[in-house]
Amino acid sequence: MELKNIQRVYLVGIGGIGMSGLARYFHHLGAVVCGYDKTSTPLTDALHNEGIRVIFEDRADWIPMSFQKPCDGTLIIFTPAIPKDSTILNYFRNNGFDLQKRSQVLGIISRGMFTIAVAGTHGKTTTSGMIAHILKDSGKDCSAFLGGISSNYNTNVLYGNNDIVVVEADEYDRSFLTLNPDTAVITSMDADHLDIYGDHSQLEESFRLFASQIKERGVLIRKKGLPLDGGYTYGIETNADANGTNIRIENGSFYFDFNSAVVSIPNIKMGIAGIHNVENAVAAIAATLRLDISADAIKLALGSFKGIKRRFEYIVRTEKHIYIDDYAHHPEELRAAISSVKKLFPQKKLTVIFQPHLFSRTRDFADGFAEVLDMADELLLLDIYPARELPIPSVTSDMLLDRMKLPAKRKCGKQEAVDIVRFEKPELLLTVGAGDIDQLVQPLKNVLENV
């Protein structure tokens, strides 16, 4: 299907972060766009306010008339997260429609464009956001499909006036294998999505396949130490091709120096916090220097980069209370978030509220979760968020508590967590998780701003 011929788009699972970006993109192009999702969220509310119709009942008779029969110019996009027995999904499947996965549509959009694709089990959303912001802020420009809401632009899709596109390349369901990038950045290859891959070796093989699909004369930029051959390496305090050094905190902000064989950029001030984000910035610099953007423009852009919502996002920052929210849902992401908070505020007692995401991930990394959560001073643990999964016998949040050594730990419900924060008034609070824990952000903000 040619992009220019698409006139009508229906998205099954329109409320997902990647799917909603495609909805906005096709709406921007002038196509008729609508879709279905299971529940109403702030993201679906935003789509509705932008003129995109969304329904929340899985009923074929609620599909608009213009999508009742297949015809030229109609595209149906679905996400693998939608259950296979979905009535709407099967209506389209059984009636001769052209169905495409979200990742396949990204492949169609990026075909013929200069594509920068950022992959990794963690770090990809912030890194792709940084690259897109550097391109926008420097005047080079780009389009972008991000896996989160950019705090600078308050959206997950950016529209450019050139042929450069930045895409977050998702390893889930091997989606990134639909892309043929000019520049590929790989930030990490830790074990994850083992419900899809079976074991870590299969995940690594999928990343190797992704790296092999880079266009001729394209470049692979990879974190040093990953089990990949070739490419341009980056890291922090290493002997990589691109290196971040002299990392320090001054007046609550992270600073570092960038060094490569070609250029040195001293005293880069980060607009966001975290050692892991310094590493992401080194990758973003390595990618954008190849597009003839000046060192000064890159330095300015990193200083004004406000990050991605729910990626180490400051919610409350007063003299009495610091509250940070983060999307971390893998042990290594949790380690990065908790370590960064403790480095920034070493004298404060850290209270963590964590919601595990997926029964399979909780089972596969139970010991890792327990070890990292023990870094907190106090833990409030919510029930596992199931997402696309059915319960697994004996896999519960209590299983994590039993493995932990931290004395100050307890399981609670979401409302109970808000009540505990209201009573204890923690000076340093971190909420982490990829489920619906984001529903707590506003109530917790209200509590801490009014004490």
Automatic annotation (TrEMBL):
SUPFAM superfamilies referenced in this protein's UniProt entry, alphabetically: MurCD N-terminal domain (SSF51984), MurD-like peptide ligases, catalytic domain (SSF53623), MurD-like peptide ligases, peptide-binding domain (SSF53244)
GO molecular function: ATP binding; UDP-N-acetylmuramate-L-alanine ligase activity
Keyword Ribosomal protein: no
Record InterPro entries: Mur-like_cat_sf, Mur_ligase_C, Mur_ligase_C_dom_sf, Mur_ligase_cen, Mur_ligase_N, MurCDEF_pg_biosynth, UDP-N-AcMur_Ala_ligase_MurC
Enzyme Commission identifier(s): 6.3.2.8
Reactions performed catalytically: UDP-N-acetyl-alpha-D-muramate + L-alanine + ATP = UDP-N-acetyl-alpha-D-muramoyl-L-alanine + ADP + phosphate + H(+)
Annotated Gene Ontology cellular component terms: cytoplasm
Domain Mur ligase C-terminal, first and last residues per copy: 310-419
One GO term (biological process): cell division
Superkingdom in the source lineage: Bacteria
Domain called Mur ligase central: residue spans: 118-287
Mur ligase N-terminal catalytic domain boundaries: 9-111
Pfam family, one: Mur_ligase_M
Compartments where located: Cytoplasm
Residues binding ATP, per UniProt: 120-126
Keyword Transport: no
Family per record: Belongs to the MurCDEF family.
Role according to the record: Cell wall formation.
Protein name: UDP-N-acetylmuramate--L-alanine ligase
Organism: Mucilaginibacter terrenus
